[in-house]
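Practice problem: predict the structure.
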Amino acid sequence: MGNVLNRIKIKPTLFILYILLLSFLFIGCEKPDVLRAHGQHQLTSSALVDADISSDGKYSVILDVKNTVSLWQNSTYSHIKQWPSTMFTHQQYYVMLANNHQWLVVAGKHSVTLISVNGNLKPLTWRVKGFDPDAEISQILINSMGTKVIIGLTEGSIVVVDISNSLKSQFALHDGPVNHLNFSDNEQKLVSASLDGQVIKWDLASGKVIWSNEQPFRITSLAFDDLSQRLFVSDALNNQTFFSINKGQEISSLSYFERNRYFREALFLSSAKKLLTSSSKYQISLWDVMSGKEISQGEIKAYNFGSTVLDFAVNENDDVLTLSSDAVLELWPASLFR
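Answer:
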């Protein structure tokens, strides 16, 4: 009987300890703050295949499902120019605007078209061939002046076309489709990533690899800050890691309680101290780089279940712009990210 009473007396103590443990756990699991956009506009009612916001946030170029390309001014939501589907012989899948706003590049599966925004020169179209005759275009990039186009292929090779000097180089760097291309070091080097899980920083002239890392699964999103040489890479499972390329070391990883989370787009903010990500659908999240913890989250304006962010950019006021697959351009004030 005495032993039974002792066990009864112990139970309340264990219960209190259990409650305290739960309290500590929930203190560390506080819900992230809420991100809310302060302005939005749907540029077109057509769904988008691809879109690019200029690096300064002033313009957006969009490619819709009708195979039409159009240029917009973001501050006034005004339509500047349009290039009809009749310009292209096949369906186009990629579009990008040069930093000088004077050139844009559009690509289908096998050809690339360089367009003068002002119409001073006729569009230049050329066919892209890989080492494998069945290779298709999987990503494009254009330099600031519109004189150099970088083309990633599904076979893993990358083609560098120097238009001003009529030169072309091709490098076999990956073993799978190239899906991310970022300039580095005054556009003399490149950071590329592929569905093979590899991320590589390499010299654009020689193809020499400077730094590399391999993730266990296919890479779904990547962000790169040239000034700090910080890199964020996420694969298709639960490996989301920050690296310092110049120091050759890992900084941290994203920390959350779900089993895994999928990220599509990513952008460094606040001198690479924070990271903004988008999910495969309509959620965006802000993270602290050093701790890997989620600071805040929000949702873009979605008209369809599959709505997702196609591009991020920061304007001159440090506001963040998002452009979705529904062609919705939204402004998120800088105060949300400080």
